[in-house]
Specification:
With 117 residues, the protein is of the alpha+beta class. The protein has one domain: SH3 type barrels (Roll), CATH 2.30.30. Helices cover 16% and strands 38% of the residues. The protein has helices spanning 2-16, 89-92, and strands at 24-30, 38-41, 50-54, 59-63, 67-70, 73-76, 82-88, 101-104, 108-111. A 5-stranded antiparallel β-sheet has the order 8-7-4-1-9. Strands 2-3 form a two-stranded antiparallel ribbon. It has a two-stranded antiparallel sheet with strand order 5-6. A hairpin with an 8-residue loop joins strand 2 (38-41) and strand 3.
Length: 117
């Protein structure tokens, strides 16, 4: 139940943010990468700055957002190679804010959402 409340709050916060959002997709887990981490980026592309390094096995809340607005400019991932992350469970536990960013889709595996993920 607490996860649903957190999820509802994240969706409301996101709706008020400066990002185009169509709705929530669900959960995913980070797969092992050659570098040993997956970069959480500020936008949908490798040219955006790294916000955090995710580990294999990290559980994420992901959305179907495909565009990021930066001022008057909108940057979209029309090829759907990047997923918008609305929360990283390991990083967000016990915090009032959520970790948000973008990850390369190839390194994620969709999973069923769990209350303990």
């Amino acid at each position: 139940m607490a996860v649903r409340a957190l999820l509802a709050a994240a969706v409301l916060l996101a709706a008020a943010s400066d990002q185009a959002r169509a709705g929530l997709d669900g959960c995913a887990v980070v797969l092992p990468t050659p570098d040993g981490f997956l970069s959480l980026r500020a936008g949908p592309g490798a040219r955006f700055g790294e916000k955090a390094r995710l580990r294999a096995g990290d559980h994420l809340w992901v959305t179907d957002t495909t565009c990021l607005r930066q001022g008057a400019r909108t940057i979209c991932d029309s090829k759907r190679r990047w997923f918008h992350v609305s929360s990283v469970r390991r990083l967000d536990r016990g915090r009032d804010i959520t970790t948000e960013g973008w990850v390369y889709a190839r390194h994620l595996k969709p999973v069923e959402c769990r209350d303990d993920s």
